Amino acid sequence: MIIGEAVRLGHTQANPLVSMKLRKDKAAKKPELSDAEIVTIKTALAEEPEWMQTAFEIALHTGCRLRETRIPLNCVDFTENKITFPSPKGGEDRAFSIPMPTALRPLLEKMAKAKQKFTVEFPFQPSRRWQQFFIKVKMPHLCFHCLRVTYVNRLRRAGVPCEAAMRLVNHASDLVHQIYQREKVEDVVKWRDAVNFPQ
Description:
Layout: H1 2-9, H2 35-45, H3 50-62, E1 76-77, E2 82-85, E3 96-99, H4 105-113, H5 126-136, H6 146-157, H7 162-169, H8 174-179, H9 185-188
Antiparallel strand pairs: 1-2, 2-3
């Protein structure tokens, strides 16, 4: 990738590594959080900085990415009861609004009263801070993005239509949305006898 970028910028003529056909290892699938893990994490977060607690709550109830938890308070509309994400992944052209989750309203009202400009102010390398936190709480298999996976799967289990779920999490395509699906045997057990055949 680095040499490819050097070619693009005109610093070198060609990328000799292309012919080696080096493959990128497939990233491990990010797991969904269980109820027990959510409770454990919330308990442990009481000892952590406020920005982490806030980011967790926002992502848990909206499925947004870590960077998207930093919402300008002027993008929170208490009258229309909606939240606008002005700079999601993909930039300002992908800005979107969602109905404000009821569970988040008290937190957001408190911030508005305190005249905060943003919901969260990140420290240096916030993703790394989360990685360190999950190691500290003995859940190294988790990362912040697992909250998005969890939200998408819980929407599906709640019977939310795919189109509505995609709109809520700002997924551009069915393919991207499907990557987040974590079907379990329990999720499909009600359809066990859906197909009948003659005896």
